[in-house]
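A further point concerns the way the authors explain their paired sequence and structure data. The central task, working out the structure tokens from the amino acid sequence alone, is never made concrete. I therefore recommend that a typical entry be quoted early in the introduction. An entry of this sort, consisting of the sequence and the corresponding backbone structure tokens, reads as follows:
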Amino acid sequence: MRPPNLQRLFLTGLLTLLPIWLTWVVVKFVFVLLSDISRPLIGPLLQDLALAHPQALGWLGAAWVQTALALVATVAVILLSGAMARRVVGQTLLRWFESLIRRIPLASTIYGSARQLLDILQTKPDGTQRVVLVDFPHTEMKSIGFVTKVMREEGSGRELAAVYVPTTPNPTSGYLEIVPVEKITPTDWSVDQAMSFIISGGAVSPATIPFSVPTSKINDLNDNSRD
């Protein structure tokens, strides 16, 4: 038997380890992000307990223990917030908090914008699909985007869509583009399906995907140009 080609072995090993690496990057990002939220509160508390009872609770001073407990505390707070938001008391507290935030100039802008973006992604827009494909960085390549708002061009009245294009594997960063509606390719994907596609680097995807602008939309544009 011929010895295996080194280049082929390298590519096989790379393709084998890439999904593991990608999963680790995403999990590490979420793990660090969540644990860092409550670490300033959990860390000093555990450190004090470890110093007060070094023999029984000295293990609480370990860095990995503080990270794990900080993560658990953050997840617990998130779950508690979700449960409270479904009840009258939680909704009342949320409205009180939002009214307080609105009194702070910079915080009100940031919170209001983030709140509107999350609300928009949870509902289907009127007249266009939420998850679309846009030409980026050129016409022969497509990127997944989320339509956040549909506007009209001043003067011509042409419909324009504000499209948020997230990056892989971290969808919290991305680009905001204003694209003519006739240039976007609609999909039947849900937001969850699109997020899975983005975070996995395209590994989690359906068997087929629309790539070109639908013929019906092109025909409508041609009819409008004749009129």
User: Anything to note?
Assistant: DSSP finds seven helices and five strands in the chain. Helices lie at 6-52, 54-57, 63-85, 88-101, 105-121, 191-199, 215-226.
